[in-house]
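I have been asked to look over a protein record a colleague put together. Alongside the sequence sits a line of tokens, each denoting a local backbone shape. Please read both lines and tell me whether the tokens look consistent with the sequence. I do not need a full report, just your reasoning and any doubts. I have pasted the whole thing underneath without changing anything.
>
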Amino acid sequence: MKKEYLYSPGPTTVPPEALSVMGAPMFHHRTARFRALFGEVVEGLKRVLQTGNDVLVFAASGTGAMDGSVANVCSLGDRVIMVNGGKFGERWGQIGRAYGLDVDEIMLEWGTGVTPAQIKEHLTDQVKAVYIQLCETSTAVATDVQGIAEVVGKTDAILVVDAISGLLCDELLTDQWGVDIVVAGSQKGLMIPPGLAAVAVSKKAWGLVKKAALPRYYFDFVKHKKSVDKNDTPYTPAVSLIRALRETLALVEAEGRDTMLANAAKYAKAVRAGMEALGLKLFSQSPSNAVTAVLMPEGADGAEFIKILRDKLGVTFASGQEALKGKIFRIATMGYLNDFDVLTAVAAVEHVLRAMNVSFTPGAAVRAAQELLVG
């Protein structure tokens, strides 16, 4: 009998409370019952995002909200800065070019993060918006959002942050730092299946929305705001997912947002300590607490490593992407986790590396991780 252990950076394990409500009988969404549910979820998202700004919710993946965060604030030919330090930063550039924008793409060496000084160097009076990641999932790099927000906030440009992976793992104080648009997705720190996306929109960003001339329909922020103001959606909502999100937001509330962040930091440090105890090297130069990227040992086949974990142990890690495929593996520390889950992940690495005849001191990773977890 094989159990499944999910440590991918999305989707993440779903708590039983959320799973159970998704199996409850369906009810109609154009009702007072749904409006009460939806209003509760929107307010919960505001607390998680640390914002009093409007929060819009879409039945979509996070990429849909990224798309909307370009189409709703820009016009054809507008100049934007988009940071490409991995697959998801690359996606910002692809979306921008698809809409005919003048994209100033800051290309980073994978594993490194953009600095406020680099952003400042590219900022001109013509720049409408700056697009960055809170966590670049493909490289496990955390971005200095606070520092960048300080730089962008002194200009007329807005700052847009993809927080899909980093939310509830890496700190993000939307209003306090002056972040204008934050994009979130349901299947990571929010702990429910894929299918919901959320966007927080500042007053400064709404100013651009009024002037933007790019085509949009489903992801039209104005349409969604009119509905959200009535605790409703303009189009059919994903009712089951919204019910599930109410449950996980309640779990976050009960645990405490600060505790969730502290736990993610503790778990990430434990994973990193365990990997280094095996003599393995970390890939990211500014590690996120959402996911840890680890270089495969010299001569070891990364694809085989991931396959043995998944097929024989029921443990799912993420591999590297593009040029990093087979060269790194990634362990997520987001969402519904506890100390024992982290120790299981670390022990799984030892188990498979030993089966692959990689030399290390048995038990070293588990011991190093446990010392950090116990304190």
